[in-house]
Structure formats: structure tokens, C-alpha cells
Amino acid sequence: MRTTAPLPGKRRRGCFGTIMKNWFIKHREVLAYLVFGVLTTLLNIVLYTLFSGLFGYEAANSWGNVLDNLLCILFAYLTNRAFVFASRTQGREALKEFGAFVTCRLGTLVLDAAIMMVFGNLLAAQGTALVEGFMNGLLSAAANWFGPDTVLHMATSSITPPAAVSDGSAAIAIIGGADGPTAIFVTSFYDAQALWGLAVKVFSNVVVVVLNYVFSKLVIFKRK
Q1: Distance (Å, whole) CA 192 – CA 133
Q2: How far apart are CA 196 and CA 76, in angstroms?
Q3: Residue 56, Ramachandran bin (φ over 0: left; ψ between -120 and 50: alpha; else beta)
Q4: Three-class SS string for the chain?
């Protein structure tokens, strides 16, 4: 009995699907760790932002940072054990595993706290200036986009900040050309210090996530 060969397009789609399926199976552990690592990082950042809003910038970078890391350690252990490394240890072995996990995470917690204290607090002024310089450069580039006759003037010292902005970070942008000003608008309702703190937090979390995977893979959940 004569059989009909599959169409070339279907054959290619089937081959691609098989390749992708095998790739996901091969890298399932890393992909799962990345997913839950991102979720842990988002939880960490959300808690940091919440503590910063409730208790202030410096508190969020000190004891608030320690508290949100402890909560994230518990979340990370439960998700890593169940969904990433599929650990089935029981009793004393499970307690030993949890102890190793907490020990390694406390090590990266100390590193995270050090990064936040040094870059978030001690170097806050330099970081804030860096953010403001970046935003000014970004606004200047946006002004140049409108043409050679367009000039962006930032007036930060001659205006009273709006009620929503208390740190003087608001700025007036005047876009004008040969025929005079064409638009006047408030360009920046941002807190440069808060943006710097958030940037440091993201950087710290990236470093911590990488180190935590190395510890989890080689020390905590290593297969016997």
C-alpha cells in the first residue's frame, strides 16, 4: 500500500518542535531556576520598595533589606526544593539540606547587605548625581531629535517643585526654535535617589541569583 509523504512544511515544523522540546527538557533545571529566581528577585524588589515607602530610604537599605531577604530565602527554598531540583529528602537529611540552604543564602545576604550599604547609602550622593546626569543627557538627546534649532533648557533652580515632588527633582523643559518657544512642560517627576537605590538593588540581586544557583547546584541539592 502506497503511503503519502508528509509535506515539507509540516516536516520542518515537526522537526523544529522536537528540537525545542528536547532543548527544554535538557535545560529544564536552569530554566526553572531562572523563572523562580526572577520571581524571588521581583519579590525582593517589591518588598524593598514597600519598606522604602513605609519606613524611609535608609531603613530600606539597612534592617528592611535584611528582613525582605529573610522572607525571600524562605520563598526560594520552598520553590527550589519543589520545582527546580525536585528534592525528595526526608527527616534528618531534609533538615541538613535546609540548614545548608540557609547558610549559603545568609552568605549571599551579607553580600547583598554590604552592596546596599556601600552603594545604596554611603555612595548615595554620587549615585544620585550619576542618575541626574544620565537623565539630563537623555533629555538633551531627545531635544536634539527635534532638529538642530531645538534647544532643551532645564530650569531646576528657578521653580518651585510641585506638591508631589519634595526633593527639587522636577524640571521645566522649554522646547524652542527660531520662532521662539513652542512648548513648555514639566519633564521629570522622578526621585533620582530612589532610582539609584533601585538600580543598586537590581544589580545586587543579579549577583546574588548567580551565586545562589552555583551553591544550590554544587552544594545544597547535589545528587548523590
Answers
A1: 10
A2: 26
A3: left
A4: CCCCCCCHHHHHHHHHHHHHHHHHHHCHHHHHHHHHHHHHHHHHHHHHHHHHHHHCHHHHCCHHHHHHHHHHHHHHHHHHHHHHCCCCCCHHHHHHHHHHHHHHHHHHHHHHHHHHHHHHHHCHHHHHHHHHHHHHHHHHHHHHHCCCCCEEEEECCCCCCCCCCCCCCCCEEEEEECCEEEEEEECCCCCHHHHHHHHHHHHHHHHHHHHHHHHHHHHHCCCC
C-alpha closest to that of 72 among 95, 51, 54: 51
Residue identified by cell 547609602 is: 121
Residue 44: closest CA among 77, 70, 78, 63? 70
Cβ proximity of 41 and 205 under 8 Å: yes
Residues 137-148: tens digit of each pLDDT: 877 777 677 644
Question: pLDDT tens-digit profile of 159-188?
Answer: 444 444 444 444 444 444 444 444 333 444
pTM of structure: 0.60
Residues paired with 185 in a beta bridge: 173
Q: From its phi and psi, is residue 38 left (phi > 0), alpha (psi between -120 and 50) or beta?
A: alpha
Q: What angle do CA 120, 39, 23 make, to 5 degrees?
A: 125
Amino acid at 219: V
